[in-house]
Specification:
- The complex is a heterodimer.
- Chain A is about 40% helix and about 20% strand.
- By secondary structure, chain A is of the alpha/beta class.
- In chain A, strands 3-2-1-4-5 form a 5-stranded mixed sheet. A 5-stranded mixed sheet of chain A has the order 8-7-6-9-10, sandwiched between helices.
- In chain A, helix 3 packs parallel to helix 5.
- The radius of gyration of chain A is 19 Å and the shape is globular.
- Chain B has a domain of about 130 residues: Rossmann fold, CATH 3.40.50.11890.
- In chain B, the strands form 2 sheets. Chain B has a 4-stranded parallel sheet, sandwiched between helices.
- Chain B is an alpha/beta fold.
- The N and C termini of chain B lie far apart (about 55 Å).
- Classes of the chains: A alpha/beta, B alpha/beta.
- Chains A and B meet through helix 2 and strand 8 of A and helix 15 of B.
Chain lengths: ~260, ~350
């Protein structure tokens, strides 16, 4: 049975098509201003590339902040539940998920049955999210994709003490003015986010094994900073950014 | 129509009955989330509780409509704003009633003294005699209101009563003429009794934390499919959970009453609030607990780690969530509540 998960995030829209437990197709596109157009376009592209018809799709589940826009979805499920299901698909023994997305960060605990046991999210603030990294990348004139490689070259992580994105940006600019290397600043930014994530995780209690999902998981430097803080390795699925959409498609199959 | 006497109290410490016995209608200042707090922001930094800035804005705009204003030590933020009000809110009578943080013999004696002092100041200022009989009559009226509210609140878990409807009834209690209020609540009770059963698509929860002072905040819970069937809020169950003793000296009765009301976050020791929550949870079956905190609300921020740890140990599912002071339905807030709903219903 073909099911589709559509995850409309603040920055990107992700889609996954599954045939029972087999992943057939995934895709990512920018959400942009017109989220309705974004999911329709990515959905049409999916049908074209898989040579499937709309009528072949038996169940659609939408998730993410834009989930209510998807009028074709039979069910709308929050990204917490979907990311947990997606992580479980890749790592059946997973006990917790770290998901750092464009505008929020989450720590999700999963019980033995695969259901969400608890979750904590960042306060309503960009600190500790993908947006924080974007702002810092702009201040440093560095592409986010280069963050991982550059932080690996750091000799000593700079200390970023401000949690507020706006003030942290000023702090970064001050560090540049003082002649601190960009590599050290980037490593400091990763440590700052990892510290924030760790204090959030401590509120719920850290359990292992941990899987990281969301767009920020593509940043190896961020992952290493988190591993150092937690004192354990973190698994990152190849399709980490699409975990929410995959989870939605899985939950769609279960709903049918 | 009786003139309103305003009070500023983010807990439930204000002795409404003394003001009623003096011939006024007690009016709790609750601010207005739809009105910009720019006037108050000139005197209070905007990283201080937005609700308190909204109350100051209301005080600055409407103080002349009120006979006077009294403060109670509801929380530490409002406590510290008394002097700001003294300078910037025009009123003939601004009074401070200190309420103890502890609940022991000496604290109760102190509180009783504070209530008598307030009574004497009112008598002197407004040239009225607040007799024991008038106080006893006010206490009876208050108890009638509390009893009606308890009956209404109990219907939340069995009938289709929206979060907003309950909130509006609770808000009337602290702002409306008490005789009109009794008629209104009696009619509401008759109407609510005939309502359909608790809807199957809604999930019952207990809400505690910062006071919810505008209906839009309650609508958010509704949007997420959560029904507040129990609460631990000053603009809610704390107002009517206890009855004021009707015998003996009325000021002593008010002191005893104050020592028995469910404890807000500013009081010590911590476990009294926890015990009360446990009792509520024992009385009413809920699927989860929402510990919501208004941005910058320090008292609740300090209580939550302890409360959430203990309640989780008891096996309850709960969410700790921060909200902003806005009438706009905040989708991020709704999303978190929806995730919580999924967690407790999966």
């Amino acid at each position: 049975m073909l099911t589709v998960g559509i995850d409309i995030g603040s920055i990107t829209t992700k889609i996954a098509m599954m045939d029972d437990s087999r992943l057939l197709h995934t895709d990512v596109a920018l959400s942009g201003y017109d989220m309705d157009k974004a999911w329709r376009d990515i959905y049409a592209r999916m049908l074209q590339s898989t040579s499937k018809k709309d009528s072949d799709v038996k169940y659609i589940v939408s998730t993410g902040y834009g989930r209510n826009i998807v009028d074709a979805a039979q069910k709308k499920i929050t990204e917490i539940t979907c990311h947990a299901a997606g992580a479980k698909y890749f790592y059946p023994k997973v006990k917790a998920v770290i998901d750092i997305g464009g505008q929020d960060s989450k720590f999700i605990k999963i019980d033995d049955s695969g259901s969400v046991a608890d979750f904590v999210m960042n306060d309503k603030c960009a600190a500790g999210t993908g947006r924080f990294l974007e702002v810092m990348a702009r201040a440093l004139h560095v592409e986010i994709k280069d963050f991982a490689a550059m932080s690996n070259k750091a000799t000593k992580a700079a200390v970023i003490s401000n949690m507020c994105t706006v003030f942290a940006e000023s702090e970064v600019i001050s560090l540049i003015a003082k002649g601190e290397s960009r590599e050290n600043i980037i490593a400091g930014i990763h440590e700052s986010i990892a510290s924030r994530m760790m204090s959030m995780m401590n509120r719920s209690g850290v359990v292992k094994p941990i899987v990281m999902t969301g767009g920020v998981s593509k940043n190896m430097g961020m992952r290493q900073a988190l591993e150092k803080k937690i004192g354990a390795t973190i698994d990152v699925p190849e399709q980490a950014q699409i975990c929410g959409a995959i989870g939605a498609a899985i939950l769609g199959a279960n709903s049918k | 129509m009786k003139k309103k006497f305003a009070y500023y109290d983010t807990g439930h410490e204000f002795p409404e009955e003394i003001v009623m016995a003096a011939g006024f209608t007690p009016y709790k200042i609750l601010g207005d989330v739809h009105v910009s707090t720019d006037p108050a922001d000139r005197y209070v930094q905007n990283y201080i509780c937005p609700f308190s800035r909204s109350c100051l804005t209301e005080g600055m705009a409407h103080s002349q409509e009120w006979a006077g204003i009294a403060f109670c030590h509801g929380c530490d933020t409002t406590n510290n704003q008394y002097d700001i009000w003294k300078y910037h809110v025009k009123t003939d009578f601004l009074y401070w009633i200190n309420t103890p943080a502890k609940n022991d013999k000496i604290s109760r004696k102190f509180h009783s003294h504070e209530l008598r002092r307030f009574k004497e100041h009112l008598e002197k200022k407004y040239d009225v005699e607040i007799t024991d009989d008038k106080l006893k009559e006010a206490i009876k009226k208050s108890n009638k209101i509390k009893s009606l509210m308890r009956q209404l609140a109990a219907l939340r878990s069995v009938k289709d009563i929206t979060n907003e409807e309950y909130f509006l009834a609770a808000r009337k209690c602290v702002q409306m003429d008490k005789d009109e209020l009794i008629n209104d609540l009696e009619k509401t009770f008759q109407e609510w009794k005939g309502r359909p059963a608790f809807p199957k698509n809604m999930v019952p929860v207990l809400v505690t934390g910062s006071d919810i002072t505008y209906p839009e905040a309650m609508q958010i819970f509704e949007s997420a499919g959560l029904r507040v069937v129990r609460d631990d809020l000053s603009l809610g169950e704390r107002y009517f959970a206890q009855t004021i003793p009707e015998g003996g000296d009325p000021i002593e009765a008010l002191t005893i009453y104050n020592s028995r009301i469910p404890q807000p976050p500013t009081k010590i020791p911590f476990h009294v609030r926890l015990d009360y929550l446990r009792q509520c949870l024992k009385e009413t079956k809920v699927a989860g607990i929402v510990l919501q905190r208004l941005m910058f609300c320090e008292p609740n921020g300090l209580d939550f780690p302890f409360l959430s740890r203990e309640l989780k140990k008891d096996g309850y599912k709960l969410i700790v969530i921060e909200r902003e002071y806005t009438p706009t339905i905040d989708q991020q807030f709704v999303s978190r509540l929806e995730s919580f709903r999924e967690l407790i219903t999966q």
